[in-house]
């Protein structure tokens, strides 16, 4: 069976206030063409179909168009909800839509109820594990500790139990939306840390033939059978070196697997440039990025007048401006943004405690801080779902 693995469409998302709707529509055109030309047997979409729980109407219309076009090709689609999606909204009408070959898996309780497809060699069971927010699904999976690893492990135990009673030789594909250890994140994924931990080991998924992952935006191979497709478009400048693509997976009669990357259209390349303003405006080596989307980091010791306007004369698609003044050796970096760079909310809070008290939080206090941040994040998730 030939499976096309994609994820993280984030329909409705903008790039530094620039609409990506046309670029997302071009991706859907490309997806449909690949399904047709490569004779794909099934499409899997591993979550974050939308960028937010209540997407704009234009994003819903594009999603509707994509489903109709895929259904017209008579190619089954298996799709799960991600942490950006509202599972309840995405799953509306799932039973009816399933009759058209579009199989939505948004309920944690149904994670061990597969979509069973078949080829000339037998059945392939597709299990959809939507994003599992530990605090919200711990009762469903009867786990004592609400953590990503425990709830995913419990979900996979159900998958393996269902698979064990199916006909011998049944192959299996699991869709999951999670941060798996070994994956490389970018700046555009939403933090899903719980209890100070956001990743789960790849071994959680042992026992199945292929794991189609979503959440991280870079295309990655964690093991031969565990892969991220990544997002089809760049959603932050940290993704400037990403090769955006989908995985074309061929699953053989005994679970043999081969994988090919299918590149996605690039609406406009990204570039990060750095230096003093006058240097950036004159540097001949930057001639090749004048039509890119640009993030400029200025190192001038004093902020220049109207830097964005000056940069736009040479780089008409400059979108982001960062100030990082050069300092003398030994001079401390005083930029607030630089002090916070690469630090989590919890680490920032711990630094604040150390600043006002003279000593950082002890183990018990760290547990309280983690619990507070987890509670806020769960509350935000519930409020998004309720909107």
TrEMBL record:
<comment type="similarity">
    <text>Belongs to the SbcD family.</text>
</comment>
<dbReference type="GO" id="GO:0006310">
    <property type="term" value="P:DNA recombination"/>
</dbReference>
<dbReference type="GO" id="GO:0004519">
    <property type="term" value="F:endonuclease activity"/>
</dbReference>
<dbReference type="Pfam" id="PF00149">
    <property type="entry name" value="Metallophos"/>
</dbReference>
<keyword id="KW-0269">Exonuclease</keyword>
<keyword id="KW-0235">DNA replication</keyword>
<keyword id="KW-0540">Nuclease</keyword>
<dbReference type="InterPro" id="IPR004843">
    <property type="entry name" value="Calcineurin-like_PHP"/>
</dbReference>
<dbReference type="GO" id="GO:0006260">
    <property type="term" value="P:DNA replication"/>
</dbReference>
<comment type="function">
    <text>SbcCD cleaves DNA hairpin structures. These structures can inhibit DNA replication and are intermediates in certain DNA recombination reactions. The complex acts as a 3'-&gt;5' double strand exonuclease that can open hairpins. It also has a 5' single-strand endonuclease activity.</text>
</comment>
<protein>
    <recommendedName>
        <fullName>Nuclease SbcCD subunit D</fullName>
    </recommendedName>
</protein>
<keyword id="KW-0255">Endonuclease</keyword>
<keyword id="KW-0233">DNA recombination</keyword>
<dbReference type="Pfam" id="PF12320">
    <property type="entry name" value="SbcD_C"/>
</dbReference>
<keyword id="KW-0378">Hydrolase</keyword>
<dbReference type="InterPro" id="IPR041796">
    <property type="entry name" value="Mre11_N"/>
</dbReference>
<dbReference type="InterPro" id="IPR026843">
    <property type="entry name" value="SbcD_C"/>
</dbReference>
<comment type="subunit">
    <text>Heterodimer of SbcC and SbcD.</text>
</comment>
<dbReference type="GO" id="GO:0008408">
    <property type="term" value="F:3'-5' exonuclease activity"/>
</dbReference>
<dbReference type="InterPro" id="IPR029052">
    <property type="entry name" value="Metallo-depent_PP-like"/>
</dbReference>
<dbReference type="InterPro" id="IPR004593">
    <property type="entry name" value="SbcD"/>
</dbReference>
<dbReference type="InterPro" id="IPR050535">
    <property type="entry name" value="DNA_Repair-Maintenance_Comp"/>
</dbReference>
<feature type="domain" description="Nuclease SbcCD subunit D C-terminal">
    <location>
        <begin position="267"/>
        <end position="355"/>
    </location>
</feature>
<feature type="domain" description="Calcineurin-like phosphoesterase">
    <location>
        <begin position="1"/>
        <end position="218"/>
    </location>
</feature>
């Amino acid at each position: 069976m030939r499976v096309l693995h994609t994820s993280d469409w984030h329909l409705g998302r903008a790039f530094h206030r620039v609409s990506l709707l046309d670029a997302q529509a071009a991706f859907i055109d490309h997806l449909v063409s690949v399904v047709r030309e490569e004779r794909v047997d099934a499409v899997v979409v591993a979550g974050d179909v939308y960028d937010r729980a209540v997407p704009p109407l234009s994003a819903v219309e594009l999603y509707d168009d994509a489903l109709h076009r895929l259904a017209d090709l008579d190619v089954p689609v298996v799709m799960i909800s991600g942490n950006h999606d509202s599972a309840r909204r995405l799953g509306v009408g799932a039973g009816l839509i399933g009759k058209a070959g579009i199989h939505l898996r948004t309920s944690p309780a149904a994670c061990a109820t597969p979509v069973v497809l078949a080829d000339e060699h037998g059945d392939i069971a597709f299990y959809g594990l939507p994003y599992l927010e530990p605090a919200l699904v711990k009762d469903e999976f009867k786990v004592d500790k609400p953590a990503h690893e425990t709830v995913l492990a419990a979900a996979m135990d159900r998958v393996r139990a269902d698979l064990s009673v199916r006909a011998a030789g049944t192959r299996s594909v699991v869709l999951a939306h999670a941060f798996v250890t070994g994956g490389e994140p970018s700046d555009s994924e939403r933090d899903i840390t719980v209890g100070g931990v956001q990743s789960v080991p790849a071994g959680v998924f042992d026992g199945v033939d292929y794991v189609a992952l979503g959440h991280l935006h870079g295309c990655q191979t964690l093991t031969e059978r565990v892969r991220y497709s990544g997002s089809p478009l760049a959603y932050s400048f940290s993704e400037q070196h990403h090769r955006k693509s989908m995985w074309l997976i061929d699953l053989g009669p005994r679970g043999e697997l081969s994988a090919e990357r299918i590149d996605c259209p690039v609406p406009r390349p990204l570039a990060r440039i750095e230096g003093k303003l006058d240097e950036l405006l004159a540097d001949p080596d930057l001639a090749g990025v004048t039509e890119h989307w640009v993030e400029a980091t200025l190192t001038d010791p004093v902020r220049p007048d109207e830097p964005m306007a000056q940069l736009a004369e040479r780089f008409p698609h400059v979108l982001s401006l960062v100030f990082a003044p050069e300092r003398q050796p030994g001079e401390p970096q005083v930029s607030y943004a630089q002090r916070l760079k690469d630090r989590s909310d919890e680490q920032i809070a711990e630094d604040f405690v150390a600043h006002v008290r003279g000593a950082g939080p002890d183990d018990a206090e760290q547990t309280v801080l983690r619990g507070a941040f987890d509670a806020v994040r769960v509350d935000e998730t519930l409020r998004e779902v309720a909107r």
